[in-house]
Amino acid sequence: MTKSHIKDEIEIELKNVNKWYDDFHVLRDINLQVRKGERIVICGPSGSGKSTMIRCLNRLEAHQEGDITIEGTPLTNDVRNIDAIRKDVGMVFQHFNLFPHLTVLDNCCLAPQWVKKQPRKEAEATAMKFLDRVKIPDQALKYPGQLSGGQQQRVAIARSLCMNPNIMLFDEPTSALDPEMIKEVLDVMVELADEGMTMLCVTHEMGFAKRVADRVIFMDAGEIIEENNPHDFFDNPQSERTQLFLSQILHN
Amino acid sequence: MLEPIHSPPFTKHPVKWAQINLFSNWFNSLVTLLVLYALVTYVPGILDWIFFSADWSGQTKADCSGEGACWVFIDARMNQFLYGFYPDDEQWRVNLAFILLLALVIPLFIEKVPRKGWLIAFLLIGYPIIATWLFQGNIFGLSQVDTEQWGGLMLTLVIATVGIIASLPIGIILALGRRSEMPIIRWICVTFIEVMRGIPLITILFMASVMLPLFMPEGVSFDKLVRAMIGITLFQSAYMAEVIRGGLQAIPKGQYEAADALGLNYFQKMFLVILPQALKLVIPGIVNTFIALFKDTSLILIIGLFELSGIMKAALNDPEWLGFATEGYLFAALIYWMFCFSMSRYSQHIEQKLNTGHR
C-alpha cells in the first residue's frame, strides 16, 4: 500500500543507537528510518525506552553509541548541529511545560522572536494563526495557569508550530489530561497529521494510532520488538510480548 | 440548574468574636486575662515616657526635665545623624542627590511611564556618576568632601544602595556558575561562595581595610569606603547566590526541556524562562538578604566609618549629652526599622503583582 503523503526522502535515521543510564541499558540497537510526511505511533509498556528514544531525537537526552541523523544533519555533541536540529523539530510534552510567567501569546512568540529573530509583529501574527488553528485565539492574553489541561496542551502544540518545524515529536501528549479533554487534543493532532507533518508520537491512544498512523512501533525493554501498519499490528500481532501488551491495554 | 448555597455568614459581632477567639476555654481565658493585665500595667508607662512626659523642644541638656524621654538630644544632633561630618554648607549636594534618586525611581513604579528601559539604564550608569560627583565634588566647581567626612544616615544609604544593586547581579552570576556544567566555573563559584559564607563580615571588613593595602603596590590606595562597599557587596552576594540557587532548583525540569526543545540557547533559556520564575519564587529570600545587608552596614563602624549607628555611638559619648542612650538607640532603631519594613512591604506588593496563578 503506497500512501501519497509519504515522500521518498528520509528525514530521520537511527542506526544501532544505544543508550545507558549508568548500568541500565535503556536503548538497545535501535534502527529506524522515518520518511518525510510519515506518521509513526510508538507504544509499549512503561520503562520500555519509547520516551527516551524520541527525546534523543532533539538531544534532550544524549545517546552513547550509534548514529542519529535528522534531515541529513548528524546529531553529535556539536552545539551548532543541535541548535539547527532543534529549530526544525518541535516537541510536545506530557506535562505541557508552558512557561507560567508568560501569557499564551508570549509563550508562542518567545522562540520565534529570540531564536529566529522575527520582529514582534510577525511573531504575533504567526502565533495568532496557530492559536486559531488549535481553536483558542480568544485565550491569547491569559496565563497558562488560567487554562484547562486540554487548552494548555493545545497552546503547547501551537507554540511548537510557531517555529514552523518539519518534524513534530509528541511525548505522551494526552497522558496527563482528564478523559473529557483528550479528544480536543487528539483532534488537533489528527488535523496536523492530515496536513502532512512528519510526526512521531508516543501514546497509548490506540484509536488515534488506527486512524492516523502509517506505522506502529512496539517497544519493550529498550528494543523495537515489532513494527507494522496499524491494521496488521492490531489484528495480527506477531510477537508474544506485543500480544500481551495489546490484550492488557485493550482490556482497559 | 442548582441554586448556589451561600456559605454560612461570617460573624463580625465583637462579643461573639471575643468568645470564639479569646475565651473559648478556661486556658485561653486565663492567657487573655494575663496578657490584658500586662498591657494595662506597662503600656501607659511606655507611652508616657515616649510621648506625654517627654521633652520635645530646647537647645541643651538643661532643657531636659528628666520625667520622660528627652528628644531634645535627637533634635540637637539631627544634622550629624543625617549627614555625619559633611560640611553644613555642602549638605544641599546630598539632598539633591537623594531627591534626584527619588525623581528617577518613582516613575519606575508608575505603570504608564514609557521607555522604562532607558530610565533603568540611566539609573544604573548615569546616576552613580552624578551622585559620586555630587557627594565627592572636586571637579566642575564643587569643593571636595572626603569620604572620611561622610557619615550618618547618608552613609548608611549610600553603602546599602550600592550593596543592594550590586549584590543581586553578582549573586545571579554565582548561582548560575554554581550549577554550571563546566567544572572550572563551578569550582570557582563554589569556592567563592563557601569562603565568603564561612567568614564573619567583620573579618572581611578588617581584611578589606587592613590587609588589602598591604598587597597593593606602592602608591596605589583604594578609598576606605570603596573597600568597605566591596567587602559588604561580595559578602552578601554569596548569600544571594544561595538564595537564588534555591529558586533555580525549584523550577521543574520540564521548563528547561521546553526551552531547549524550542531551540533557545543557554542565556536565552536562563534569562527569559528560568530566572524570571526562579527570582519570583525567592523574592522573600532576596529581600531577606537586602534587609540583612542594610543592617550589616552598621558594622563598618569597626573600620572607622561613622554611619548611622556609629555616629549615634559617638554622639552618646559627648560629655555634654551623657545619659541619653535609650533615646539615641530608640531613634536609630526606628530609622532602621522604617527602611527595612518598607522593603518588606514593597516585596509583598511585588509578589502579588507578579502572581500569575501558576500551579
Describe this structure in words.
The complex is a heterodimer of chains A (252) and B (359). Chain A has 252 residues and is an alpha/beta fold. Chain A has 9 helices and 10 strands. Chain A has a 6-stranded mixed sheet with strand order 6-7-8-3-9-10, sandwiched between helices. In chain A, a hairpin with a 2-residue loop joins strand 1 (10-21) and strand 2. In chain A, helix 3 (104-114) packs across helix 4 and helix 4 crosses helix 5. The longest helix of chain A has 16 residues, at 179-194. Chain B is an all-alpha fold. Chain B is built from 14 helices and no strands. Chain B has helices at 14-21, 26-52, 72-83, 91-105, 116-136, 152-178, 183-198, 201-215, 224-250, 253-261, 266-281, 283-296, 308-316, 325-354. The chains are: A alpha/beta (252), B mainly alpha (359). The interface between A and B is medium-sized, with 27 and 23 residues.
Number of helices of chain B: 14
Separation of the first and last Cα atoms of chain B:
30 Å
Total DSSP E strands of chain A: 10
Unreliable spans of chain B: none
CATH superfamily of the domain at 78-86 and 145-354 in chain B: MetI-like
Question: What distinguishing features does this structure have?
Answer:
heterodimer; A: 252 residues; alpha/beta; six-stranded mixed β-sheet; B: 359 residues; mainly alpha; MetI-like fold; 14 helices; globular
Protein topology:
The complex is a heterodimer of chains A (252) and B (359).
Chain A: E1 10-21, E2 24-35, E3 39-43, H1 50-57, E4 65-70, E5 73-74, H2 79-88, E6 89-92, H3 104-114, H4 120-133, H5 149-161, E7 167-171, H6 179-194, E8 198-202, H7 206-212, E9 215-220, E10 223-228, H8 230-235, H9 240-251
Parallel strand pairs in A: 3-8, 3-9, 6-7, 7-8
Antiparallel strand pairs in A: 1-2, 1-4, 4-5, 9-10
Chain B: H1 14-21, H2 26-52, H3 72-83, H4 91-105, H5 116-136, H6 152-178, H7 183-198, H8 201-215, H9 224-250, H10 253-261, H11 266-281, H12 283-296, H13 308-316, H14 325-354
Helix pairs in contact in B: 3-6, 3-13, 4-5, 6-7, 6-9, 6-12, 6-13, 7-9, 8-9, 9-11, 9-12, 10-11, 12-14, 13-14
